Every structure is written in C-alpha cells, then in structure tokens.
Amino acid sequence: MDSIIEVSGITKVYQKRKTKEKIQAVDNISFQVKRGEIIGLLGPNGAGKTTTIKMICGLLKPDSGQILINGVDNEKHRLRALTHISAVLEGSRNLYWRLTVRENLEYFAGNRGVSRKNVASRVEDLLQKFRLKDKETELVNRLSRGMQQKLAIAVAMLADTEVILLDEPTLGLDIETGYEVREILKAIAKEENRTVIISSHDMDVIQDICERTIIINQGKVVTDDRIEDLLKLFEVRSYTITLGEHLNEKQEHLIKERFLDYQYESNRIQPKLSVELLKTEDIYQLFDILKLNETPVEAIDREIIQFEQVFMKIVKGETTNGVDQVKSQSV
Amino acid sequence: MEWIKSNLNLFKANFRKETIELRRYLPNTIAMLLTVYIIFMAMFAGIHSVGAPGTVDATIQNTIVNYIFWYLTITIVNGQGYEILTEATRGTFEQLGMSPSGIWRILSARLLAQGILTAAMMIVLLYLSMLTTGQSLNVDFVTIIPIFLLTCISMFGLSFIIAGLTVIVKQIQAFLQIFQFVLAALTFVSLSRAPFLVFFPITKGVDMIRAVMVEGLTLNELGFSNFLVLTTNALVYFIIGLATYLYCERYAMKKGLLAHY
Question: With an 8 Å Cβ cutoff, is A317 touching chain B?
C-alpha cells in the first residue's frame, strides 16, 4: 500500500489579534496515511486536530512543512489536490438549509463541476444507503440533527474522492443516531475502500472503525500506532486478588518492596490486593509472598484496559509497563 | 472541452440554486420588488412636485435608468459581501473552499446567475416604471446588451474586491451599508458633471446606457472610442477585483480566517 497523504513537518502558529500572543497550534507534525487506511485523529480540545485537518484540506496554510495528497503538493496545487479530498468539517452546518436533501447533494456535485445527470444514480444510491430517500424533498432546516449529519456525510461521499476527512462526525448526536452514523461509517470503511480520517472525541467510534490512531497533544504527535498495538502496549498487567485473610506486616512490606504499583484494601471482609506487574511472570513472586502465611486466594481478576484509558494515559504522558516512553512511530 | 463542461455544470448548479431560493421564498422576492418599486414611485412623485417643468421628463427618465442600475449594482456588488457573511456564519463557506473548482469560480458562477436573474427582474421593473410614469425610454437591446455586459464585468470586479474584504474582515455590514451610497454616486452622477468618474467602475457604462435609453443614441453613434474606454475599464476592474480577491483568500488561509466569523 502506498501513501495517499504525506504530512511532513507542518507547523502552524496563530497570533491573537489583541494581545499579539503567539499560540503554537501545530508543532512539526509528520505522518503518512496509506491508501485505504482508516485513521483516527485523537486529542484533547485545542490539541491541534482541527488545524491539522484544515491544513490537509487546504483551507489553512501551514507556516512550514509540506502536505502531499496523492503526490500533489496541496499548497502549490491546491485545487488539484482537492480533487482527491472531501470533508465534513462542521457536520450539519456544512449544508444549505434552504435547499432540500436532494438539492443539496446535486448542488455540491455541481460545485465540483459534475452535472445532475451524471450524478443521478449516485445520488439515488446515497439516499438509499443513508436512509434519506423518504426525506429527499424535505428542506434541510426541517431535518433532525442526526439526519443533517448523515446528509453532510453523504455530500462528502458523493464526491467520490479517495480521501474523506470527518471532523467529529458523531458530535451532539443522540445515542441512537450516533450508533446509526457509526454503522454508516463502518460500512463506508468496509465497502467503499476509501481512505478515511476521523477526528473525534468518541473513543468508541475510533476503536470501532479505525485501524490506526494518531494522537495529537499540544500540537505534537504523541502516538501514531495501530489501535490493536496500542491496547497491547498499554495492556495492564494489573490483577485484583481477593483474599480470604488479611496480609500480615511482613507480607505487606514485601509487596511494597517488590511491586511499585499496588493497592491494598484491608478494610473489607474479604481484603483486596491490586498490583500492576512489569512482567506477567512476576505473579509467581506475588504467590510466593502470599504462600508465606498461607493466605487463601478467593479470586483473581485481570483488568482489561479500555482504549479511552490508553488515550488518557498517552495524553497525560504516562509511560507503559516496561516502556520508558510513549511509543511514537511513523508508519 | 472538459473545462467548458465543468464550468457549465458549475454555472447550472448555481443558477438552479438561485432560482430555487427565489421561487421558494416568493413572498420575500415579491416584497423586495415591491419595495424597490415603491421607493421609485416616491422618487417619481418628488421629482414631479419639485422639478422644473421643462426638464421634468428628462429627469424622470434619467432617474429610472439610474435607479434601476443602482439597485442592480447593490444586488451584485454588496450581495456578494452579504452572501459570504451568511455562508461563513452558517458554515458552508468552508465547503466552497473544499471544491476543486475554487471559491472564485463558484462566486463567479453565482454572480453570473444573480446578474441574469436580477437583470430579468429589472427589465420587468423598467417596463412597470415606464408604464406608471407614462415615460417612454428607448429600449434598444442591440445597443444596450453589449454595454450592459461590459458594465457587469466591472461590477463583478468591484464585487470581488468586496468579497475579498469580507473573507478577511467578516464584520463588514456597516461598511456595506455606507458603500451603497458610493454605488449611488457611481450610478447617479453623470460623466459630464464629474469626468474623473470615467476611471471608476460602472459609471461609464451607466452613462452610455443613459445616452441610449434617454437620448436615443445608437451603437454607431456611440462610437468605437466609448466602447474602448468601457472595455478597458471593465477588464481593468475585473482583473484588479479578481487579483484582490485571490490575495485576500490566500491571506485568510494563512491567518486561519477563511471560515472564521
């Protein structure tokens, strides 16, 4: 798979109008996106996600660095680069509210120089796929937020570009519509074989749909890895052991000495001991300590890490077990 | 060929959008035309009551032409500014920026569409005004159309300047309101009174149309030199306008102001 998007060392500094204070929105970001990949762009508010997306879209010029879209420099040949990209940047706000669902689709196609005739079958297909057929003559301002969001995505799909950028596609949607949009995005990812970049706060969306995630914090890429690998990397070798008896002083002392991260809840009928292991084999050391006093073990539970926890750990700059620094790799 | 097709589709899409909106909000369109007509009738009544009896007819005829052109100019020039403001506020302007056609081409297609639709409405208004006032103007389309088209080109240029400023500044409403009076000066003042206005956009064209409609001059009588001046003026303003817009667009993209309101 060759790269369709190549971002090399882009930076962007904004200056506040009144105070002239400079804000580094994006700081030397580099990454590549392969054809057909589905990437999640994550980061806390103000991390630089939207700025990065807008620079990829050619709506914002980087102060330095280069963005190649299918080999085309999007600063030097902006319009040519845009033939490969479509985006939903502000969801429902990206639509003409005085036009109907169908008219919006046809108008945006026209703005790309495509006739209504040439786009007719594609419009029909999208209306069906996005379950908007029965609303095709409805004015956009009369649609629900979820439907508007679906239409905005349909408009982006209509362009038939290799790359689709979606900025917060599920933001502000109720659970049901959010789920529906997620299903649609999954279908796009599976069936349409397009390169999709999703920026979202919704971890479920990212975990569900994306193969790889790029986490941006304070304008920098802090992680660029496959979600699967990140989960493995951050996989907590954390165990909660329910004990039949309390630990004695010696045992507590030994645990404190050998395990850096542990928690002992003794104020329970069945005390609980939580430990984080550097290596899975370290559990035997723990058993040895428990054996010293023949402490009965009632249950052993292994904690399963959620992607949201991984994200929080990365953003907070926490290290992984046995890994000194947050993994950052360029693919 | 592909380029022509693509531009034609772009124009068709924008013409359709403008038509749909005019039709869908018909009461609004009618109210707008009625307002223009009522203001004109008030002006007509004013001229009738205070104008010198010997020149009243010529004054009314000039007023009809000036007023109609003023309205057309406001719609095209200021309309572009308001349009960008609305799009930036609603969030659709970024989508225009995402089109491989380029914002300026989409705006041009819209200008052309709006120009045609407004011109059609102005023709109706022109005949309505003539009918009401009992004045007869020389509506020689063969002579008027080339002058009108060239005048529109300079209007488009001016409109691109306004569009460029709007892309950067956004809160430009107050300026646009004042600018209406600048446009009034460009359409109402005759070149014989202010010859320097020949270097400004629109004025030369409106002056020539007045000569055709009020004084009854023909294409031949207007002469080559007048058309040369008009063509040069139109092209210069269109190029300046487009260059200004493209510069402003680049500046806005650099500063992150494109869709910022």
Answer: no
User: How near does any CA of chain A get to the CA of B56, in Å?
Assistant: 45
Asked, colleague to colleague, whether A3-225 and A236-302 share their fold, the answer is no
Provide ipTM, 2 decimals: 0.89
Percentage of chain A beyond pLDDT 90 is: 42
Taking CA–CA distances from B92, the nearest residue in chain A reads A94
Q: Categorize the per-residue pLDDT at A325 as very low, low, confident or very high, splitting at 50, 70 and 90.
A: very low
Model confidence pLDDT, tens digit, residues A15-39:
877 788 888 999 999 999 998 898 9
Chain A positions in Cβ-Cβ contact with residue B250 (cut-off 8 Å): 61
Q: Report how many Cβ contacts below 8 Å link chain A to chain B.
A: 101
Full DSSP string of A220-269:
EEEEEEEHHHHHHHT---EEEEEESS---HHHHHHHHHH-SEEEEE-SSS
Spans of chain B below 50 pLDDT: none
In angstroms, the Cα distances linking B228 to A147, A261, B214, B236 are 55, 86, 22, 12
Each domain of chain A, given as residue ranges in start order, spans 3-225, 236-302
CATH architecture designation of domain A3-225: 3-Layer(aba) Sandwich (3.40)
CATH 3.30.70 fits A236-302, yes or no: yes
User: What does the alpha-carbon distance between residue A197 and residue A190 come to, in Å, rounded to a whole number?
Assistant: 14
